[in-house]
């Protein structure tokens, strides 16, 4: 078998595995003070929403132990 590859319609596809770029990407732009403040505000809003949902939802998950003895059925009394 020869070392030649199967011909392809586009030369760049055949040579793509040998391509190396010598171009470095430009440096990332620094975020402005407004963007940083906006990210902090968004993060705080999400955390506050999670804490608020826990505070509001926790009482609904608790069992009320004060009414448990009064709600026994008559079958458990042996009647």
Give a verbal description of the structure.
- With 79 residues, the protein is mainly alpha-helical.
- 42% of the residues lie in helices and 0% in strands.
- The protein contains two helices and no strands.
- The chain has helices at residues 11-14, 33-61.
Question: What layout of secondary structure does this protein have?
Answer:
Layout: H1 11-14, H2 33-61
Q: Radius of gyration, Cα only, in angstroms? A: 34 Å
- Name the shape in a single word: elongated
Strand content: under 5%
Q: What string gives the helices and strands in order?
A: HH
* Helix/strand class: mainly alpha
Mean pLDDT metric? 77
End-to-end CA span: 95 Å
Number of helices: 2
Identify low-pLDDT runs. none
Q: Biggest sheet, open or closed, and with what strands and sense?
A: none
The beta-strand count equals 0
Instruction: State the helicity in percent bands.
Output: 40-55%
């Amino acid at each position: 078998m020869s070392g030649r590859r199967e011909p392809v319609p586009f030369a760049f596809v055949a040579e793509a595995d040998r391509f190396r770029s010598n171009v470095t990407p430009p440096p990332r732009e620094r975020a402005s003070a407004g963007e940083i403040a906006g990210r902090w505000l968004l993060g705080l809003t999400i955390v506050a929403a999670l804490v608020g949902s826990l505070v509001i939802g926790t009482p609904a998950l608790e069992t009320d132990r004060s009414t448990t003895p009064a709600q026994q059925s008559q079958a458990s009394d042996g009647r």
